[in-house]
């Protein structure tokens, strides 16, 4: 053919598992080009031949035909010498060692087209619970290795039937090269069994619905693991689930069929509706409708409720039958989500009455993500299913860097090509099952990304499970101070370089002076920091026990504010006189009473003193219920003056505490006292920022730490700081809590690479 040329295009970005190759095929076919397209571990490679003008048009139009979920990062073009065979084909994948540039696609919620077919009696996949296409379905959770192809997923156990194969091979079909494509004739199937694993007769789905209607607890295998489900409108069923899961008042997520059902439970903005319906389908925290008893049972004592929409066909079929289902991770408290049928039957046997199983294996377990609208834009509380393992940019980071995160809400990340691949949510690393989950997930992510760890960074706390795992690797190691990592995480999340004031407000992190930090104002960048201000320190009677028993913390606060005399006023909160006297005496002598400057603990102690939460069932409960108590009330601040303690500023909260107790004893409404307390804390930290700036510090303030899950505090700080002319840097893409900490550790390691080279030499 005269004027014919051949070129090769290498396309990187999120281009595998999103229907990219079929789109390329259709464009090439339309333009009459010959050649082919294939996935490699590195990229999607397109080889085309035809008239120069057609090649040019192909290159021009390629970005426009990219499916909605794909994202092209780079296109490299090179000429080809040899001629290509006639016609255009989607070629066998080339097996190459992945170099981390090929994206591992995240799981995608059922698309509108598949949902329509699912509910269409005339469709051949009517009510087939594993329907999917190139635009939706399982991805990360079924992948064994790259490139992304059916043969390297758990779908390889299901040979395609003639009908599915025809769709898979038809370029005009929505399922053209949809790797997990399946139907009732050839694909995965449901089964239902009792708590001992004995199969139950009848249709599994109908049997499950019937049992849920009877108020039974169903363990249900989903996309990234098992859920425990009950009919949320049956109060006794919800109570029984809480009892068996030993989950006192901790909020339970709800799954409902559609936005109409969501509005019965919660107030909903247009942005929240969009977040609920986004392909990642996170649990979204919404303001509860006051009139909803279902919401009250799911999230007692709180003003916000976690709700999600169905994200698999199976969920759609179940949810249509109920106003709302409680859908909580299938695990014992504190353990990771159960993944395989046998494992679930063993671990969940005394939690569930029946098991709805299927035979598509989950390769990577993945909990639900949790998000909310912060200032009308999404922010994450937990980054997991639908997001993991999408990378985030991390300029300057060395290849082969592993950041292992902290202890609670753990995630880790692996770095290559200045991209940080964040793991799914791993959990709290204080039990062997979760530690094993960490090891397994690290091995998997390392295999899928092709990143072998060469450097490790961890928290400075010597006893964190993650720190121990990091040490076991025997690689050059950097320990990063917890709150420095928070500051660096906020900067990296927002893509900001240079210095900022860091408001690092959380529950616990080991400080440089050996005390527990958590109400810290740092000044610095990813490379270095200094501690500029803190909360006035106090003791935590009983150490870790104070986290579950905030009344202990109130004793610590009262000892600091007025001595033993005042501390005795907390006796009623404890309810056990001998225990109480012992705790006060030990705390006064400093026995088993570590010193802290933690804002999270200050919230706990005040929550206890106001009688809201003297004993907590879950992490963060005391603070969350204290925030909820304030409702819509506004309050003027109490007195909390700044003092100077050497080079350090200190927020002296003791006058506030005395005023708060006085007003409490005079019968002031608890909600109002909570509102005034929040305002005081915000004003205290704003005053620190003002003073730091006056002394030549930065004009911008980065927010990080679990306390920013408190919306009232977050808003008061942001509003106040902006009013004073500060710019504010906040978390969006990773959580402000310790779930985002690994990104900060990696950013610190990237900024201080020379520390590793020293470590390498000394080995
Ligand atoms: Zn679909
Ligand atoms: Zn089939
Ligand atoms: Fe933290």
Describe the structure.
Helix content is 34%, strand content 20%. The chain is α/β, with parallel strands linked by helices and 763 residues long. The chain folds into five domains: 4-90, 2-Layer Sandwich (Alpha-Beta Plaits); 104-188, Alpha-Beta Complex (DHBP synthase), CATH 3.90.870.30; 190-366, Alpha-Beta Complex (DHBP synthase), CATH 3.90.870; 389-480 and 741-758, Nucleotidyltransferase, domain 5 (2-Layer Sandwich); 507-732, Nucleotidyltransferase, domain 5 (2-Layer Sandwich). Helix 20 packs across helix 21. It starts with a strand and ends with a helix. One zinc ion binds at residues 111, 113-114, 132-133, 135-136.
Any descriptors?
34% helix, Alpha-Beta Plaits, 26 helices, 5 domains, ten-stranded mixed beta sheet, DHBP synthase, 763 residues, binds fe (iii) ion, binds zinc ion, alpha/beta, seven-stranded mixed beta sheet
CATH fold label of the largest domain: Nucleotidyltransferase, domain 5
Strand order, sheet with most strands: 6-13-7-8-12-9-11-10-14-15
The total number of structural domains is 5
Shape verdict: globular
Discrete helix count: 26
Rg result = 28 Å
CATH class group of the largest domain: Alpha Beta
Termini separation (Å)? 63 Å
Biggest beta sheet attributes: 10 strands, mixed
In what range is the share of β-strand residues?
Answer: 15-25%
- Poorly predicted regions: none
Number of strands: 30
Integer average pLDDT: 93
The CATH architecture of the largest domain can be named as 2-Layer Sandwich
Distinct compounds present = zinc ion, fe (iii) ion
């Amino acid at each position: 053919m005269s004027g014919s040329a051949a070129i090769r295009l290498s396309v990187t970005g999120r281009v595998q598992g999103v229907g990219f190759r079929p789109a390329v095929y259709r464009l090439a076919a339309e333009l009459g080009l010959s050649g082919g397209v294939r996935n490699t571990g590195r990229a999607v490679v397109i080889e085309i031949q035809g008239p120069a003008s057609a090649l040019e048009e192909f290159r021009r139009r390629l970005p426009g035909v990219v499916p909605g979920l794909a994202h092209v990062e780079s296109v490299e073009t090179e000429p080809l010498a040899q001629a290509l065979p006639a016609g255009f084909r989607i070629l066998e994948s080339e097996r190459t060692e992945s170099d981390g540039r090929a994206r591992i696609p995240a799981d995608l919620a059922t698309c509108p087209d598949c949902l329509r077919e699912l509910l269409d009696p005339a469709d051949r996949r009517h009510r087939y619970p594993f329907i999917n296409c190139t635009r939706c379905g399982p991805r990360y959770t079924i992948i064994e290795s790259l490139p992304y192809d059916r043969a390297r997923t758990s779908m390889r156990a299901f040979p395609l039937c003639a009908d599915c194969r025809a769709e898979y091979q038809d370029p005009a079909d929505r399922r053209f090269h949809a790797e997990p494509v399946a139907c009732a004739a050839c694909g995965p199937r449901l089964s239902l069994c009792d708590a001992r694993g004995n199969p139950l007769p009848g249709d599994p789905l109908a049997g499950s619905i019937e049992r849920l209607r009877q108020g039974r607890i169903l363990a249900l295998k989903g996309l990234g693991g098992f859920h425990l489900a009950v009919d949320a409108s049956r109060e006794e069923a919800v109570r029984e689930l809480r009892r068996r899961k030993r989950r006192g008042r901790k909020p339970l997520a709800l799954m409902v069929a559609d936005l109409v059902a969501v509005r019965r439970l919660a107030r909903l903005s247009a942005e929240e509706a969009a977040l609920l319906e986004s392909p990642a389908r996170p649990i979204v925290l919404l303001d509860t409708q006051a009139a909803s008893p279902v919401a009250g049972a799911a999230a007692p004592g709180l003003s916000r409720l976690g709700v999600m929409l169905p994200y698999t066909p199976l969920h759609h079929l179940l949810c249509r039958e109920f106003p709302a289902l409680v859908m909580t991770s299938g695990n014992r408290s504190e353990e990771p989500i159960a993944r395989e049928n046998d494992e679930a039957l063993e671990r969940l046997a005394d939690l569930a009455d029946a098991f709805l199983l299927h035979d598509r294996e989950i390769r990577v377990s993945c909990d639900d993500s949790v998000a909310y609208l912060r200032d009308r834009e999404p922010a994450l509380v937990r980054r997991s299913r639908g997001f993991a393992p999408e990378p985030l940019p991390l300029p300057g980071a060395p290849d082969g860097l592993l950041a292992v995160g902290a202890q609670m809400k753990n995630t880790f990340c692996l770095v290559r090509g200045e991209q940080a691949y964040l793991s799914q949510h791993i959990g709290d690393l204080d039990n062997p099952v979760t530690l094993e989950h960490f090891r397994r997930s690290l091995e998997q992510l390392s295999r899928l990304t092709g990143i072998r760890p060469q450097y490790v960074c961890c928290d400075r706390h010597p006893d964190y499970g993650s720190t121990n795992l990091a040490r076991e690797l025997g690689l050059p190691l950097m320990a990063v101070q917890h709150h420095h990592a928070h500051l660096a995480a906020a900067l990296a999340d927002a893509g900001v370089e240079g210095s900022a004031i860091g408001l690092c407000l959380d529950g616990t992190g080991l400080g440089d002076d050996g005390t527990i930090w958590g109400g810290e104002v740092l000044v610095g960048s990813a490379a270095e920091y200094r501690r500029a201000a803190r909360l006035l320190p106090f003791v935590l009677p009983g150490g870790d026990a104070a986290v579950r028993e905030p009344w202990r913390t109130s004793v610590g606060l009262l000892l600091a504010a007025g001595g033993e005399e005042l501390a005795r006023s907390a006796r009623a909160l404890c309810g056990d006189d001998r225990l109480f006297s012992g705790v006060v005496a030990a705390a006064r002598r400093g026995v088993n009473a570590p010193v802290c400057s933690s804002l999270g603990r200050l919230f706990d102690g005040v929550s206890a003193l106001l009688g809201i939460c003297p004993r907590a069932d879950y992490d963060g409960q005391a603070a969350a219920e204290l925030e909820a108590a304030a409702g819509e009330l506004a309050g003027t601040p109490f007195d909390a003056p700044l003092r100077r303690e050497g080079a350090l500023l200190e927020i002296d909260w003791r006058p506030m505490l005395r005023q708060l107790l006085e007003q409490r004893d005079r019968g002031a409404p608890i909600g109002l006292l909570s509102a005034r307390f929040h305002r005081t804390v915000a004003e205290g930290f704003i005053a620190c920022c003002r003073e730091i700036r006056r002394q030549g510090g930065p004009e911008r303030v980065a927010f990080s730490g679990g306390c920013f899950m408190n919306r009232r505090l977050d808003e008061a700080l942001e509003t106040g700081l902006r009013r004073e002319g500060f710019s504010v840097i906040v978390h969006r893409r990773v959580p402000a809590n310790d779930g985002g900490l690994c990104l900060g550790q990696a950013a610190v390691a990237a900024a201080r690479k020379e520390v590793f080279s020293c470590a390498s030499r000394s080995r």
